[in-house]
């Protein structure tokens, strides 16, 4: 990529992109009405590694529960995680909650306007900070999310994995060079929309793109190749993990849920007790329970970003209990576990595969009754 290749296109890029956006862009996303700093921030965090269609119902439910940054900051983390359950990447929710408390305590509940201040908040990187500054405050600030990386990498045939240091630096230079000093909010949305709706990862709609005649990847027949994927070594393979989950039911058909540790996978969510294979009864005794394991269910596969998890569900019937974990009153200590009635209680925040298993429990209970 030469300097001439950039300079030939920069002056016209924003004008053409905004003209396309005015006619074809997305103007009815829920965080655009109203487009406040708080709503933009929550949406930007939710959209990290998650598609718009998936985010919209979560965003609307989250706004109903926490309509402003102060209500979010004042909430318990457990309540925040429950509204996030099923969206994945739960560190995002924990960081969102932590950042809300910083804004409440250090900024008096008013959002900082400078990208540098925004980027200092938990869970907000440079691109997200710039997106908030641009969309909420109309500040000219370049963004470089996955969609923008793809657009620029194809337009200029940028070599290398976009997250590699040298390639990312090159893409940041391009992003900054193309960002206009006017209509910052619209431009930011426009370049994300271009990547999300036309310059997609698979089967891009090049014939509809306003930059089809300028795109080096298209001219060279490399749209499927660019941007490059993460380099893999010959020995590298996706990691796999395996766990056994206990579905312990009491005489009333309630299922035991325990709280996950505050950090790590599914941090802070409710889940099913886990055990080593063949040690299900020992794991139950550690909770103060005596159970009778039943035949295991078929394994359940769940994919994370960096590994695959195989869950081996083992149903078990409660025989007796003692101490803190006695279900006599219907609940355990609220910080550690609950006996969850799948038919009558609102489901707490649980990971997606646990929700799948609970749904099967509900079906089994209906059959038994």
From TrEMBL:
<dbReference type="GO" id="GO:0006298">
    <property type="term" value="P:mismatch repair"/>
</dbReference>
<keyword id="KW-0411">Iron-sulfur</keyword>
<dbReference type="GO" id="GO:0032357">
    <property type="term" value="F:oxidized purine DNA binding"/>
</dbReference>
<keyword id="KW-0378">Hydrolase</keyword>
<dbReference type="GO" id="GO:0051539">
    <property type="term" value="F:4 iron, 4 sulfur cluster binding"/>
</dbReference>
<keyword id="KW-0408">Iron</keyword>
<comment type="function">
    <text>Adenine glycosylase active on G-A mispairs. MutY also corrects error-prone DNA synthesis past GO lesions which are due to the oxidatively damaged form of guanine: 7,8-dihydro-8-oxoguanine (8-oxo-dGTP).</text>
</comment>
<comment type="similarity">
    <text>Belongs to the Nth/MutY family.</text>
</comment>
<keyword id="KW-0234">DNA repair</keyword>
<dbReference type="GO" id="GO:0034039">
    <property type="term" value="F:8-oxo-7,8-dihydroguanine DNA N-glycosylase activity"/>
</dbReference>
<keyword id="KW-0479">Metal-binding</keyword>
<dbReference type="Pfam" id="PF14815">
    <property type="entry name" value="NUDIX_4"/>
</dbReference>
<dbReference type="GO" id="GO:0035485">
    <property type="term" value="F:adenine/guanine mispair binding"/>
</dbReference>
<dbReference type="GO" id="GO:0046872">
    <property type="term" value="F:metal ion binding"/>
</dbReference>
<dbReference type="InterPro" id="IPR029119">
    <property type="entry name" value="MutY_C"/>
</dbReference>
<dbReference type="GO" id="GO:0000701">
    <property type="term" value="F:purine-specific mismatch base pair DNA N-glycosylase activity"/>
</dbReference>
<dbReference type="InterPro" id="IPR011257">
    <property type="entry name" value="DNA_glycosylase"/>
</dbReference>
<keyword id="KW-0004">4Fe-4S</keyword>
<feature type="domain" description="HhH-GPD">
    <location>
        <begin position="46"/>
        <end position="197"/>
    </location>
</feature>
<dbReference type="InterPro" id="IPR004036">
    <property type="entry name" value="Endonuclease-III-like_CS2"/>
</dbReference>
<dbReference type="InterPro" id="IPR003265">
    <property type="entry name" value="HhH-GPD_domain"/>
</dbReference>
<dbReference type="InterPro" id="IPR015797">
    <property type="entry name" value="NUDIX_hydrolase-like_dom_sf"/>
</dbReference>
<dbReference type="Pfam" id="PF00730">
    <property type="entry name" value="HhH-GPD"/>
</dbReference>
<dbReference type="InterPro" id="IPR004035">
    <property type="entry name" value="Endouclease-III_FeS-bd_BS"/>
</dbReference>
<keyword id="KW-0227">DNA damage</keyword>
<keyword id="KW-0326">Glycosidase</keyword>
<dbReference type="InterPro" id="IPR023170">
    <property type="entry name" value="HhH_base_excis_C"/>
</dbReference>
<protein>
    <recommendedName>
        <fullName>Adenine DNA glycosylase</fullName>
        <ecNumber>3.2.2.31</ecNumber>
    </recommendedName>
</protein>
<dbReference type="GO" id="GO:0006284">
    <property type="term" value="P:base-excision repair"/>
</dbReference>
<dbReference type="InterPro" id="IPR044298">
    <property type="entry name" value="MIG/MutY"/>
</dbReference>
<dbReference type="InterPro" id="IPR005760">
    <property type="entry name" value="A/G_AdeGlyc_MutY"/>
</dbReference>
<dbReference type="InterPro" id="IPR000445">
    <property type="entry name" value="HhH_motif"/>
</dbReference>
<dbReference type="Pfam" id="PF00633">
    <property type="entry name" value="HHH"/>
</dbReference>
